Amino acid sequence: MRWTAFMAVLAMATTGASRATAADSVSNVVLAVHGGAGVIDRDKLSAEREKEIRATLDAALAAGEAVLNKPDGTSLDAVEAAVRVLEDSPLFNAGKGAAFTREGTNEMDASIMDGRTRAAGAVGFVTTIKNPISAARAVMEKSGHVLMVGDGAEAFAEDAGCEIVDPKYFWTERRWKSLQEALEEEKKKRDEQQSSGLGNRDAENLALHLRDAEARCGTVGAVALDRGGNLAAATSTGGLTLKRHGRLGDTPIVGAGTFADNKSCAVSGTGQGEFFIRSVAAYDIAALVEYKGLAVADAAREVVHKKIKSAGGEAGVIALDAKGNHAAPFNTNGLYRGYVTKDGKRHVAIYEE
């Protein structure tokens, strides 16, 4: 088992209320990925599925590392390559494995940011782009804009050479089943609350809060540091099961779910997007590093464990500074994650190790 680095750090983590929220604080990291933070119960995750998840995280690391090992490999290329691997897998809530809206459609969001120039690109509620992260990069590099959404984003992506697929490509039985369960749960909550005076909106909010914990922890992301000392971050998601048509979470909002600046750090977040938006979470971590002088692990822990958790939100982030210091705090009982160091050693984890 290659968990020595994790265990050495996490042995010093606090217990009690902050149990399972410790940061994986390591140095000399060049690339890190995540597949989402949330309710990940050991007794409900089969050995076979866990093996598949670990293998896919490792494959994403390998793809990004291969880019960084090239003489001209950039952090932007690396995070895009890593996230594309995760988008192509039905195991995570992004791309192929995207969650369903209440209308039974798949609406995906993604963003990418260059820490050298602070250029950024994002797409929102797209339904036909096979790899939304590549569309986000196209927006950054070819459009003159930062955020494009819906039909306009899809038309632009096609013109930019991104692969377009039939929306049926994103249908998976597991996510469809989750939607049906969520709809049933919402109906049950509505019926239960009518007698107590709660309206339909209250029942819907209850269902959104309680349903499909697995889908909430499927957002994917990557952060990287290249040989030139440049950082980049990328995030992609299918959003919330049962979300309303047109809902945008934190993922396509630069500064909320994604941020990168060579002066501070690169961040990709996962969890309940509304809390990331209200907290401007990714930028807040970077600001604590740049303006307050906090170590990246301390800054990430401050936002995840204090700011977001105190507001009632579930969250996890991966953060990386220009010196290769990496942290991955989460305030849930699991975060699909991994990192690779300068010497080529790859590490993958799910729970507090």
What does this structure look like?
With 353 residues, the protein is of the alpha+beta class. It folds into two domains: 4-13 and 25-95 and 216-349, (Glycosyl)asparaginase (Glutamine Phosphoribosylpyrophosphate, subunit 1, domain 1), CATH 3.60.20.30; 173-209, no CATH class. Helices cover 38% and strands 20% of the residues. It contains eleven helices and twelve strands. The chain has helices spanning 4-10, 47-68, 75-87, 132-142, 150-159, 173-194, 200-210, 213-216, 273-279, 281-292, 296-310, and strands spanning 29-37, 108-114, 120-126, 147-149, 220-225, 231-237, 258-260, 265-271, 315-321, 326-327, 335-341, 346-349. It has an eight-stranded mixed β-sheet. The chain is globular.
Give the structure's gist in a few sentences:
With 353 residues, the protein is an alpha+beta fold. The protein contains 11 helices and 12 strands.
